[in-house]
């Protein structure tokens, strides 16, 4: 079946697949609020990645090799771009002081909102590109600008919820409690006059911040995947499966995120490559999907390999600095003899 002949049956299979995965995640894997340990998170991450691979095989068999490669490229790119989002999520949870056993619930509903927002972005983006081809060139230039900014820009070390526009707008219409009330987003409490009213908890404010930051990330990631394909189905399905694995990836990698010191340069390289690929269309130069996939894999491999090497060297230097030299040992012995 050709990619431009994606039927309602294909969409139904996709929607059912996502629904089943969401039900398994919240209703089976994380039915009770608990601290997700690295081993459990790794198993869940492997499960969601395996689900994406199985779906990818189905796309390959049913829609053809081109669609299969586009899904693979889009999924891999979106998954890696989502890693950058993990740093922000860590800052948000740290800033709000959300207990670890409640973090999964915030991420779960954050993912649901992200799926809705990204579908809207994708529909608008695909419509614009199909109606005005030159929009791709604008997206390409924007991605190159984002890549440069990612490399030379300063990273934020804190999150300021009070400066978030969505949070400020929400506080005008809803009272917010000072303390957490378990994993609840809303509670009924008495105000100063004794009247029981609906209050939002800091958990819900954290959810709003995560949703708003995902919108910002979508502004980068959606144009990036439109540089690979303009098929609404491939763009949204690859995004959805990548986002589904974000929660388990967060709990699996949150303890070792500092090891990926060169990851942002790899992500910048991917955005720069896709942006250049889009702009190359002006000169009637087209890069195949397979070539794009290989380039993305190489960039990620180099970035992560360099990160591992630097981390090992840094640890080695730290260990050698802690060990006293022979000369120092002799001096200590001499002092003890004295």
Q: Helix count?
A: 12
Instruction: Report the end-to-end length measured between terminal Cα atoms.
Output: 88 Å
Largest sheet: 3 strands, mixed
Radius of gyration: 24 Å
**Uncertain ranges:** 326-338
Mean pLDDT: 79
| Share in β-strands | under 5%
Fraction of residues in helices? Answer: over 70%
Count of distinct strands: 3
Q: Could you spell the SSE succession in H and E letters?
A: HHHHHHEEEHHHHHH
Structural class comes to mainly alpha
Kindly report the spatial arrangement of strands forming the biggest sheet.
1-3-2
Shape: globular
Overall tally of structural domains: 1
Describe the structure.
- It is a single chain.
- The chain is built from twelve helices and three strands, in the order ααααααβββαααααα.
- 73% of the residues lie in helices and 4% in strands.
- By secondary structure, it is mainly alpha-helical.
- It has one domain.
- It has a three-stranded mixed beta sheet with strand order 1-3-2.
- Helix 1 packs parallel to helix 8 (232-244), helix 3 (65-96) packs antiparallel against helix 7 (202-226) and helix 3 (65-96) packs across helix 8 (232-244).
Keywords:
about 350 residues; mainly alpha; 3-stranded mixed sheet; globular
Which helices and strands appear, and what pairs or packs with what?
Blueprint: H1 8-29, H2 38-63, H3 65-96, H4 100-131, H5 135-152, H6 165-171, E1 175-176, E2 186-190, E3 196-200, H7 202-226, H8 232-244, H9 246-253, H10 263-279, H11 289-322, H12 326-337
Parallel strand pairs: 1-3
Antiparallel strand pairs: 2-3
Helix pairs in contact: 1-8, 2-3, 2-8, 2-9, 3-7, 3-8, 3-10, 3-11, 4-7, 4-8, 5-7, 5-10, 10-11
């Amino acid at each position: 079946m050709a990619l431009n002949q994606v039927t309602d049956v294909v969409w139904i299979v996709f929607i059912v697949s996502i629904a089943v995965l969401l039900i398994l995640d919240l209703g089976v894997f994380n039915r009770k609020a608990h601290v997700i340990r690295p081993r459990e998170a790794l198993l869940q991450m492997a499960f969601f990645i395996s689900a994406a691979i199985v779906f990818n095989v189905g796309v390959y068999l049913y829609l053809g090799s081109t669609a299969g490669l586009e899904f693979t490229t889009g999924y891999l790119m979106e998954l890696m771009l989502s890693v950058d989002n993990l740093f922000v999520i860590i800052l948000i949870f740290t800033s709000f002081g959300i207990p670890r056993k409640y973090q999964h619930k915030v991420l779960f509903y954050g993912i649901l909102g992200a799926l809705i927002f990204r579908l809207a972005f994708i529909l608008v983006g695909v419509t614009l590109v199909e109606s005005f081809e030159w929009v791709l060139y604008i997206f390409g230039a924007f991605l190159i600008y984002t890549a440069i900014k990612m490399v030379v820009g300063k990273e934020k070390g804190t999150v300021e919820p009070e400066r978030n526009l969505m949070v400020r707008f929400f506080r005008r219409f809803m009272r917010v409690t000072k303390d957490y009330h378990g994993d609840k987003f809303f509670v009924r409490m008495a105000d100063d006059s004794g009247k029981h009213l609906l209050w939002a908890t800091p958990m819900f404010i954290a959810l709003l911040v995560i949703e708003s930051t995902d919108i910002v990330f979508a502004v980068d990631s959606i144009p990036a995947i439109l540089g690979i394909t303009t098929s609404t189905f491939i763009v949204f399905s690859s995004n959805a499966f990548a986002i589904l694995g974000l929660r388990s990836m967060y709990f699996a990698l949150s303890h070792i995120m500092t090891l990926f010191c060169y990851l942002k340069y790899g992500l910048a390289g991917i955005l720069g490559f896709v942006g250049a690929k889009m702009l190359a269309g002006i000169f009637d130069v087209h890069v195949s999907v397979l070539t794009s996939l290989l380039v993305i894999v190489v960039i990620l491999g180099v970035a992560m390999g360099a990160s591992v090497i630097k981390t090992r060297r840094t640890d080695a230097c730290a260990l050698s600095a802690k060990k006293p030299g022979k000369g120092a040992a002799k001096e200590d012995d001499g002092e003890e003899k004295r």
